[in-house]
TrEMBL record:
<dbReference type="Pfam" id="PF03466">
    <property type="entry name" value="LysR_substrate"/>
</dbReference>
<keyword id="KW-0238">DNA-binding</keyword>
<dbReference type="InterPro" id="IPR036388">
    <property type="entry name" value="WH-like_DNA-bd_sf"/>
</dbReference>
<dbReference type="InterPro" id="IPR050950">
    <property type="entry name" value="HTH-type_LysR_regulators"/>
</dbReference>
<dbReference type="InterPro" id="IPR036390">
    <property type="entry name" value="WH_DNA-bd_sf"/>
</dbReference>
<dbReference type="GO" id="GO:0003700">
    <property type="term" value="F:DNA-binding transcription factor activity"/>
</dbReference>
<protein>
    <submittedName>
        <fullName>Transcriptional regulator, LysR family</fullName>
    </submittedName>
</protein>
<dbReference type="Pfam" id="PF00126">
    <property type="entry name" value="HTH_1"/>
</dbReference>
<dbReference type="InterPro" id="IPR005119">
    <property type="entry name" value="LysR_subst-bd"/>
</dbReference>
<dbReference type="InterPro" id="IPR000847">
    <property type="entry name" value="LysR_HTH_N"/>
</dbReference>
<dbReference type="GO" id="GO:0005829">
    <property type="term" value="C:cytosol"/>
</dbReference>
<keyword id="KW-0804">Transcription</keyword>
<feature type="domain" description="HTH lysR-type">
    <location>
        <begin position="17"/>
        <end position="69"/>
    </location>
</feature>
<keyword id="KW-0805">Transcription regulation</keyword>
<comment type="similarity">
    <text>Belongs to the LysR transcriptional regulatory family.</text>
</comment>
<dbReference type="GO" id="GO:0003677">
    <property type="term" value="F:DNA binding"/>
</dbReference>
Length: 309
Protein backbone atom coordinates (compact mmCIF):
# COMPACT_ATOMS: atom_id res chain seq x y z
CA UNK A 1 0.00 0.00 0.00
CA UNK A 2 1.16 3.55 -0.77
CA UNK A 3 -0.17 6.94 0.24
CA UNK A 4 -2.16 8.67 -2.52
CA UNK A 5 -2.72 12.31 -1.57
CA UNK A 6 -5.53 13.02 -4.06
CA UNK A 7 -7.39 9.82 -3.16
CA UNK A 8 -6.97 10.63 0.56
CA UNK A 9 -8.48 14.12 0.12
CA UNK A 10 -11.43 12.87 -1.95
CA UNK A 11 -12.35 9.96 0.29
CA UNK A 12 -11.80 11.35 3.81
CA UNK A 13 -14.35 13.40 5.77
CA UNK A 14 -13.76 15.55 8.85
CA UNK A 15 -15.81 13.32 11.15
CA UNK A 16 -13.61 10.32 10.34
CA UNK A 17 -10.51 12.39 11.06
CA UNK A 18 -11.91 13.39 14.45
CA UNK A 19 -12.93 9.80 15.18
CA UNK A 20 -9.43 8.53 14.36
CA UNK A 21 -7.88 11.19 16.60
CA UNK A 22 -10.22 10.16 19.43
CA UNK A 23 -9.15 6.53 18.99
CA UNK A 24 -5.49 7.53 19.25
CA UNK A 25 -6.13 9.61 22.36
CA UNK A 26 -8.47 7.14 24.05
CA UNK A 27 -6.40 4.11 22.96
CA UNK A 28 -9.60 2.18 22.47
CA UNK A 29 -12.08 2.32 19.59
CA UNK A 30 -15.05 1.67 21.87
CA UNK A 31 -14.26 4.71 24.03
CA UNK A 32 -13.65 6.78 20.89
CA UNK A 33 -17.09 5.75 19.60
CA UNK A 34 -18.67 6.79 22.90
CA UNK A 35 -16.83 10.12 22.78
CA UNK A 36 -18.06 10.82 19.25
CA UNK A 37 -21.55 9.44 19.90
CA UNK A 38 -21.66 6.63 17.31
CA UNK A 39 -21.94 2.85 17.53
CA UNK A 40 -18.72 0.96 18.21
CA UNK A 41 -19.20 -1.22 15.12
CA UNK A 42 -19.62 1.85 12.93
CA UNK A 43 -16.49 3.41 14.44
CA UNK A 44 -14.49 0.26 13.79
CA UNK A 45 -15.61 0.15 10.15
CA UNK A 46 -14.86 3.85 9.59
CA UNK A 47 -11.35 3.52 11.00
CA UNK A 48 -10.64 0.40 8.95
CA UNK A 49 -11.78 2.22 5.80
CA UNK A 50 -9.63 5.20 6.81
CA UNK A 51 -6.56 2.96 7.01
CA UNK A 52 -7.35 1.57 3.57
CA UNK A 53 -7.59 5.11 2.18
CA UNK A 54 -4.31 6.13 3.86
CA UNK A 55 -2.58 3.12 2.36
CA UNK A 56 -0.57 2.37 5.51
CA UNK A 57 -1.38 0.77 8.90
CA UNK A 58 -2.32 3.52 11.34
CA UNK A 59 -3.30 1.59 14.47
CA UNK A 60 -1.75 -1.42 16.13
CA UNK A 61 -4.40 -3.63 17.75
CA UNK A 62 -3.59 -5.08 21.19
CA UNK A 63 -5.66 -7.05 23.71
CA UNK A 64 -6.09 -3.81 25.70
CA UNK A 65 -7.04 -1.57 22.79
CA UNK A 66 -5.18 0.30 20.05
CA UNK A 67 -1.89 2.17 19.79
CA UNK A 68 -0.95 4.52 16.97
CA UNK A 69 1.77 3.32 14.62
CA UNK A 70 4.53 5.72 13.59
CA UNK A 71 2.44 6.68 10.54
CA UNK A 72 -0.63 7.02 12.74
CA UNK A 73 1.19 9.44 15.05
CA UNK A 74 2.15 11.59 12.06
CA UNK A 75 -1.44 11.71 10.82
CA UNK A 76 -2.75 12.42 14.34
CA UNK A 77 -0.34 15.37 14.63
CA UNK A 78 -1.58 16.87 11.38
CA UNK A 79 -5.22 16.26 12.33
CA UNK A 80 -4.71 18.20 15.58
CA UNK A 81 -3.21 21.09 13.62
CA UNK A 82 -6.06 20.96 11.11
CA UNK A 83 -8.73 21.25 13.81
CA UNK A 84 -6.79 23.99 15.60
CA UNK A 85 -6.68 25.96 12.34
CA UNK A 86 -10.40 25.36 11.85
CA UNK A 87 -11.08 26.72 15.34
CA UNK A 88 -9.09 29.85 14.46
CA UNK A 89 -11.04 30.16 11.21
CA UNK A 90 -14.35 29.84 13.05
CA UNK A 91 -13.33 32.52 15.55
CA UNK A 92 -12.27 34.93 12.79
CA UNK A 93 -15.42 34.38 10.75
CA UNK A 94 -17.56 34.82 13.88
CA UNK A 95 -15.88 38.15 14.48
CA UNK A 96 -17.37 39.47 11.23
CA UNK A 97 -20.93 38.84 12.37
CA UNK A 98 -20.73 39.22 16.16
CA UNK A 99 -17.81 41.59 16.68
CA UNK A 100 -14.36 40.54 17.89
CA UNK A 101 -14.48 38.57 21.13
CA UNK A 102 -11.96 36.78 23.31
CA UNK A 103 -9.37 37.24 26.00
CA UNK A 104 -5.86 38.61 25.56
CA UNK A 105 -3.13 38.28 28.18
CA UNK A 106 -0.59 41.12 28.07
CA UNK A 107 2.63 41.31 30.10
CA UNK A 108 4.82 44.38 30.41
CA UNK A 109 6.84 46.46 32.84
CA UNK A 110 5.73 49.59 34.67
CA UNK A 111 8.19 51.71 32.70
CA UNK A 112 6.34 50.70 29.51
CA UNK A 113 2.78 50.57 30.82
CA UNK A 114 2.83 54.09 32.26
CA UNK A 115 4.14 56.22 29.36
CA UNK A 116 2.90 54.18 26.39
CA UNK A 117 0.95 50.99 26.77
CA UNK A 118 -1.85 51.98 29.17
CA UNK A 119 -3.39 54.58 26.87
CA UNK A 120 -3.06 52.32 23.84
CA UNK A 121 -4.72 49.44 25.67
CA UNK A 122 -7.49 51.85 26.64
CA UNK A 123 -8.00 52.77 22.98
CA UNK A 124 -8.10 49.09 22.04
CA UNK A 125 -10.68 48.35 24.75
CA UNK A 126 -12.92 51.10 23.38
CA UNK A 127 -12.53 49.79 19.82
CA UNK A 128 -13.19 46.18 20.85
CA UNK A 129 -15.44 46.23 23.94
CA UNK A 130 -16.11 42.48 23.80
CA UNK A 131 -12.42 41.58 24.20
CA UNK A 132 -11.22 41.10 27.78
CA UNK A 133 -7.69 42.35 28.44
CA UNK A 134 -5.83 40.57 31.25
CA UNK A 135 -2.77 42.61 32.23
CA UNK A 136 0.31 41.48 34.17
CA UNK A 137 2.98 43.86 35.44
CA UNK A 138 6.29 42.01 35.45
CA UNK A 139 9.98 42.81 35.63
CA UNK A 140 11.48 43.34 32.19
CA UNK A 141 13.59 40.17 32.54
CA UNK A 142 10.55 37.90 32.99
CA UNK A 143 8.23 39.24 30.28
CA UNK A 144 9.66 37.12 27.45
CA UNK A 145 9.54 34.05 29.70
CA UNK A 146 5.83 34.66 30.32
CA UNK A 147 5.21 34.56 26.55
CA UNK A 148 7.32 31.40 26.18
CA UNK A 149 5.41 29.63 28.95
CA UNK A 150 2.01 30.59 27.58
CA UNK A 151 1.22 32.94 30.48
CA UNK A 152 0.98 35.89 28.08
CA UNK A 153 -0.15 36.24 24.47
CA UNK A 154 1.75 39.50 24.03
CA UNK A 155 4.77 40.75 25.97
CA UNK A 156 6.14 44.28 25.63
CA UNK A 157 9.74 44.55 26.87
CA UNK A 158 12.97 46.50 26.57
CA UNK A 159 15.92 44.82 24.84
CA UNK A 160 18.74 44.11 27.27
CA UNK A 161 22.07 42.22 27.09
CA UNK A 162 21.81 38.45 27.50
CA UNK A 163 18.04 38.27 26.95
CA UNK A 164 17.25 35.05 25.06
CA UNK A 165 14.72 35.75 22.29
CA UNK A 166 15.13 32.49 20.37
CA UNK A 167 11.71 31.15 21.42
CA UNK A 168 9.61 34.18 20.46
CA UNK A 169 8.86 36.38 17.50
CA UNK A 170 9.69 40.04 18.02
CA UNK A 171 8.10 43.13 16.53
CA UNK A 172 9.26 46.77 16.76
CA UNK A 173 7.31 49.00 19.14
CA UNK A 174 9.17 52.05 20.50
CA UNK A 175 12.62 53.56 20.90
CA UNK A 176 13.62 55.55 23.96
CA UNK A 177 16.87 56.49 25.70
CA UNK A 178 18.27 56.47 29.19
CA UNK A 179 18.94 59.79 30.90
CA UNK A 180 20.76 60.72 34.09
CA UNK A 181 18.44 62.42 36.55
CA UNK A 182 20.44 64.84 38.71
CA UNK A 183 19.51 67.62 41.16
CA UNK A 184 19.28 71.07 39.54
CA UNK A 185 22.29 72.29 41.56
CA UNK A 186 24.47 69.34 40.57
CA UNK A 187 27.66 69.93 38.59
CA UNK A 188 26.37 67.68 35.77
CA UNK A 189 23.03 69.50 35.42
CA UNK A 190 24.29 71.87 32.72
CA UNK A 191 25.89 69.17 30.55
CA UNK A 192 24.58 68.31 27.08
CA UNK A 193 25.28 64.63 27.79
CA UNK A 194 27.01 62.42 30.33
CA UNK A 195 28.62 58.97 30.21
CA UNK A 196 28.13 56.14 32.66
CA UNK A 197 31.83 56.31 33.47
CA UNK A 198 31.33 59.89 34.71
CA UNK A 199 28.38 58.77 36.86
CA UNK A 200 30.16 55.88 38.58
CA UNK A 201 31.89 58.05 41.25
CA UNK A 202 28.52 59.64 42.14
CA UNK A 203 26.03 58.40 44.74
CA UNK A 204 24.12 56.17 42.35
CA UNK A 205 20.43 55.46 43.02
CA UNK A 206 19.61 52.32 41.03
CA UNK A 207 16.33 50.47 40.57
CA UNK A 208 16.70 46.69 40.83
CA UNK A 209 15.76 46.03 37.18
CA UNK A 210 18.84 47.97 35.98
CA UNK A 211 21.49 46.40 38.22
CA UNK A 212 22.60 43.80 35.67
CA UNK A 213 23.03 46.31 32.82
CA UNK A 214 24.98 48.74 35.00
CA UNK A 215 27.22 46.02 36.44
CA UNK A 216 28.05 44.84 32.91
CA UNK A 217 28.83 48.42 31.80
CA UNK A 218 31.09 48.89 34.81
CA UNK A 219 32.99 45.66 34.07
CA UNK A 220 33.65 46.82 30.51
CA UNK A 221 35.04 50.08 31.88
CA UNK A 222 37.19 48.22 34.40
CA UNK A 223 35.58 50.18 37.22
CA UNK A 224 33.94 49.26 40.49
CA UNK A 225 30.15 49.28 40.60
CA UNK A 226 28.85 50.14 44.04
CA UNK A 227 25.45 51.84 43.98
CA UNK A 228 24.73 53.95 47.05
CA UNK A 229 21.00 53.22 47.08
CA UNK A 230 18.99 50.33 45.62
CA UNK A 231 15.24 50.76 45.18
CA UNK A 232 12.43 49.04 43.34
CA UNK A 233 10.59 51.86 41.60
CA UNK A 234 11.39 54.73 39.29
CA UNK A 235 9.31 57.13 41.39
CA UNK A 236 11.31 56.43 44.53
CA UNK A 237 14.62 56.76 42.66
CA UNK A 238 13.69 60.15 41.24
CA UNK A 239 12.35 61.41 44.56
CA UNK A 240 15.71 60.57 46.17
CA UNK A 241 17.48 62.47 43.40
CA UNK A 242 15.10 65.37 44.01
CA UNK A 243 16.14 65.25 47.69
CA UNK A 244 19.80 65.57 46.53
CA UNK A 245 20.80 62.17 47.84
CA UNK A 246 22.39 61.21 44.55
CA UNK A 247 21.79 60.67 40.84
CA UNK A 248 19.75 58.04 39.06
CA UNK A 249 19.46 56.74 35.50
CA UNK A 250 15.96 56.28 34.09
CA UNK A 251 14.15 55.91 30.77
CA UNK A 252 13.46 59.35 29.36
CA UNK A 253 9.78 58.52 28.87
CA UNK A 254 9.39 57.96 32.63
CA UNK A 255 11.09 61.26 33.43
CA UNK A 256 8.83 63.16 31.01
CA UNK A 257 5.81 61.45 32.53
CA UNK A 258 6.78 62.18 36.13
CA UNK A 259 7.60 65.89 35.72
CA UNK A 260 9.39 66.14 39.07
CA UNK A 261 10.58 69.61 40.05
CA UNK A 262 14.13 70.19 41.24
CA UNK A 263 15.84 67.69 38.92
CA UNK A 264 17.34 67.84 35.44
CA UNK A 265 17.49 65.05 32.84
CA UNK A 266 20.85 64.75 31.06
CA UNK A 267 21.04 62.36 28.06
CA UNK A 268 23.41 59.40 28.40
CA UNK A 269 26.10 59.27 25.71
CA UNK A 270 26.81 55.51 25.93
CA UNK A 271 25.74 53.45 22.93
CA UNK A 272 23.93 50.93 25.15
CA UNK A 273 21.80 53.74 26.63
CA UNK A 274 19.49 53.68 23.60
CA UNK A 275 16.42 51.82 24.82
CA UNK A 276 14.69 49.62 22.25
CA UNK A 277 11.22 48.41 23.23
CA UNK A 278 9.79 45.46 21.33
CA UNK A 279 6.72 43.22 21.33
CA UNK A 280 7.13 39.48 21.86
CA UNK A 281 4.61 36.94 20.56
CA UNK A 282 4.78 33.12 20.58
CA UNK A 283 6.83 31.51 17.84
CA UNK A 284 5.23 28.05 18.02
CA UNK A 285 1.53 28.84 18.39
CA UNK A 286 -1.00 31.01 16.57
CA UNK A 287 -2.30 34.23 18.06
CA UNK A 288 -6.05 34.40 18.55
CA UNK A 289 -7.93 36.89 16.37
CA UNK A 290 -8.25 39.22 19.38
CA UNK A 291 -4.52 39.06 20.18
CA UNK A 292 -3.67 39.58 16.52
CA UNK A 293 -5.90 42.67 16.41
CA UNK A 294 -4.13 44.09 19.46
CA UNK A 295 -0.71 43.40 17.94
CA UNK A 296 -1.73 45.19 14.74
CA UNK A 297 -3.04 48.17 16.68
CA UNK A 298 0.13 48.47 18.76
CA UNK A 299 2.28 48.28 15.63
CA UNK A 300 0.21 50.94 13.90
CA UNK A 301 1.48 53.58 16.35
CA UNK A 302 4.53 55.62 15.25
CA UNK A 303 7.64 53.86 16.61
CA UNK A 304 9.17 57.15 17.77
CA UNK A 305 5.99 58.54 19.36
CA UNK A 306 6.54 60.55 22.52
CA UNK A 307 4.82 59.44 25.72
CA UNK A 308 1.62 61.11 26.79
CA UNK A 309 1.92 63.76 29.46
Amino acid sequence: MTFNRLHFIRQTDLFTLRLFLSAVEEQQIGRAALRENIAASTATKRIQDFEEIAGVPLLERTPKGVVATAAGEVIARYIRKLFADMDDMRAEITAFSEGLRGEVFVASARSIFVPYLSRELGAFARDFPQVDLVLRELENTTIVQAVLQGDADIGVFAIMPGLDLSGVQTHPYRTDRLVAVVPEAHALAGRASVSFEELMPENLIVISAMHAAFAKAARKLGGEYKPKYSVRSTGVAMSLAQARLGVTVQPECDVLQARIDGVVAVPMSDSWAKRIVQIATPRDRHLSPAARALLEQLQSRPADAQPHA
